[in-house]
Amino acid sequence: MIPNHPTPMNRHTSKLNQHEHEERALHQQGAQQQTAVEFASAEEMLRHDAGQTPVPPAVAERLQRSVDQEPKPPRSLWQRLFGR
Amino acid sequence: MEPETPPIQSSKRGTHASASETSDLVPCGRPERARLAPPELDRIYEEHSRPLYYLALRMLGDPTQAEDATHDVFLKAYRKLGDFKGHSTVRTWLYRITINHCQNLLQTWHRRHIHTTDDEAVWERAAGAAESPLRVLETKELGQRIQKALDTLSEEYRLLLLLVADEKLSYDEIGALTGQTSDAVRGKLHRARKTFAAIFNQTA
Asked: Which run of H or of E encompasses A37?
């Protein structure tokens, strides 16, 4: 049966747990501080955001398909004669 | 029909100004050269698609619509390169097409602004005199917060901030794209920054 009152042993354990909790909280706080980013202006923030926002590859693929379907420009007489 | 970009001074704001930007892409004017050859399209797409997609994304507020818009803008550019006279850089020309395209979409969808002019005035007053730095702890949700703040801004402020975020655009070019002088751009940007900061800090 587990005693409800703290024994010298489990008091120590509880202290350890508390210490562990504090360390974890500090660690998390530190991690948050590391990820904190400060921007001097709105455009600096937008620049950062734009840098994190790639164009989805599907756009290039779709554009290529659309360009392939476009009518080809007329070939010049020189091109038609020499087949280039 | 996309309007031709008026002649623009080539002064640049940032150190990343690209004086030689796609200088060899000016069409020679012969009909058979009016369309982009695929390698040239590849190069233009590679160089300019990212800022244009970002502009469309933040103007329209929807990734799928931004994808469609980016596709349509480059297809238009492909078809209309023959009309491009080289008075501006290719980037500015593409920006103009993108802005017109997105504004047309917004008008067609009858999207109404969330705010009114009065709302914006409230935010401007709330911004106060000091321009506090914008601090974020969680960059994961940064895009959502930015979108929320931009949606609350007027279309003019939103566009100015998005354009000035591209270091390759000069104030003169931004003025030409938004139909005002570079001095007016500077003045409005000052207010736009403060308003954005006030709104953004409320989105946390």
From this structure: strand A37-39
Beta-carbon contacts of residue A71 (< 8 Å; ≥ 6 apart): none
- Give the whole-angstrom CA distance, residue B96 versus residue B47: 16
Mean pLDDT by 10 residues, chain B (204 residues): 40 41 39 54 93 98 96 94 83 96 88 53 56 64 93 96 97 97 97 94 83
Q: Helix B38-60 to helix A42-51 angle, to the nearest 10 degrees?
A: 130
Q: Which amino acid is at B30?
A: R
Contact criterion met (CB < 8 Å) for B161 and A53: no
CB contact under 8 A, B53 and A41: no
**Which two three-digit tokens encode residue B61?**
């507020």
Judged by a CB distance cut-off of 8 A, whether residue B46 touches chain A is: no
Cβ of B45 and A63 within 8 Å? yes
Q: Which of B3, B173, B183 is nearest to B89 (CA)?
A: B173
What's the rounded Cα separation, in Å, for the pair A56 and B68? 11
